[in-house]
């Protein structure tokens, strides 16, 4: 069982930056990890993910088109923590952000069904 706890949310002005953290109770290096978000009245959507590749020792990063070039996902295995660095924030980035982990490190990071564990979420509000 893996428990995930997000932190770092809050209120930020448009154009600003914020970093979210996701602390895992167990080791994360063998897990698929990702960030999703859900705005009021909308479905939960993929933001960024870290997965493994059968062809490379390096982790594979995947981003939603809406955040590509602005957000960066990273992982510190020594701290069992996953981060989401968010730059150039826009009001449309306002949502509850969720950290997620899946047992299949080769899974498709964009798919909700690939994830077995979820955090409780942290609110990010971007003011215009």
Write up what this structure looks like.
With 128 residues, the protein is mostly beta strands. 0% of the residues lie in helices and 52% in strands. It is built from no helices and 11 strands. The protein has strands spanning 4-7, 10-13, 18-24, 32-38, 45-53, 56-63, 71-76, 81-86, 95-102, 117-118, 122-127. The strands form 2 sheets. Strands 2, 4, 5, 6, 9, 10 and 11 form a 7-stranded mixed sheet that branches. The protein has a 4-stranded antiparallel sheet with strand order 1-3-8-7, with no helix packed on it. Strand 7 and strand 8 (81-86) form a beta hairpin. It is globular. The termini are far apart. The model has no long low-confidence stretch (mean pLDDT 93).
Short description:
This protein is mainly beta and 128 residues long. The chain contains no helices and 11 strands. A hairpin with a 6-residue loop joins strand 4 and strand 5 (45-53).
Topology at a glance:
Elements: E1 4-7, E2 10-13, E3 18-24, E4 32-38, E5 45-53, E6 56-63, E7 71-76, E8 81-86, E9 95-102, E10 117-118, E11 122-127
Parallel strand pairs: 2-11
Antiparallel strand pairs: 1-3, 3-8, 4-5, 4-9, 5-6, 7-8, 9-10, 9-11
Structural key phrases:
128 residues; mainly beta; 11 strands; seven-stranded mixed beta sheet; four-stranded antiparallel beta sheet
